[in-house]
Amino acid sequence: MSTPAGIDPRGPRFAATITALLLLVATFLALIGISTESASSGSFGWFAYQPLADSTFVPGGLVISSSTPAQRALDPGFLLAVVIALLFLWGVVSPRTAPWSVVFRTLVRPRLSPPAELEDPRPPRFSQGVGLFVVGIGLLLHLAGVPWALPIATAAAFIAAFLNAAFAFCLGCQLYLLLQRAGIVGRAASA
Question: To which H or E segment does residue 55 belong?
């Protein structure tokens, strides 16, 4: 098995920056959406007891548990997470034609000096798959009516993308290298 041609290490960081911004917005939308909305009819603010109104908060559950799958699918946080999952899928299936790759290659890289060294494209591609898995699980659990699944999944993916964008620490790449050392991925084909 030959090693694929190297890629500019700044490309995945560029993509991680845009992905982190999208995931931050998706997390915010998921937090204010149906996934975390309380089903109680009273408007009590943050307090469980309001002496002036002589009312006590009685937990009524979350809206997501009584909503239909169609209502869950129309949640803005869910819709943005679907777009992000599709971008992750695109990065796994065809990383060369993925939108952030094309933007980096055509608009950003010509303005930069050549990289000091190229990196193996397999770890960043695996990392895209990990992002797809995490966001996909959040989407499926959200559709199933699990409260907080979508904001937790998008926040976890955001943390990974932010670490890559800000500190060049790719969690998915590190996971790939760990699995490669264990002989689970990246093994040479037997002749």
Answer: strand 55-56
Q: Which residues contact 149 (CB under 8 A, 6 or more apart)?
A: 35, 137, 138, 141, 142
**Contact by Cβ (8 Å): 172, 128:** yes
Structure tokens at 100: 């952030």
For a pLDDT cut of 90, what percent of the chain falls above it? 75
Contact 131, 81 (CB under 8 A): no
Provide the whole-model pTM.
Answer: 0.85
> In this structure, are residues 143 and 110 in contact, taking their beta carbons and an 8 Å threshold?
no
Q: Are 142 and 72 in contact (CB under 8 A)?
A: yes
pLDDT in tens, 101-117: 999 999 999 999 999 99
pLDDT at residue 159 is higher than 70? yes
* Nearest Cα residue to 123 out of 178, 163, 190, 188: 178
Structure tokens at 76: 């803005």
Would you give the end-to-end CA distance of the chain in angstroms?
10
Dihedral sign of CA atoms 162, 137, 35, 89 in order: positive
Structural contact between residues 152 and 141, judged by C-beta atoms closer than 8 angstroms: no
Rg from Cα positions in the chain: 21
CA distance 142 to 82: 11
Average pLDDT, the chain: 88
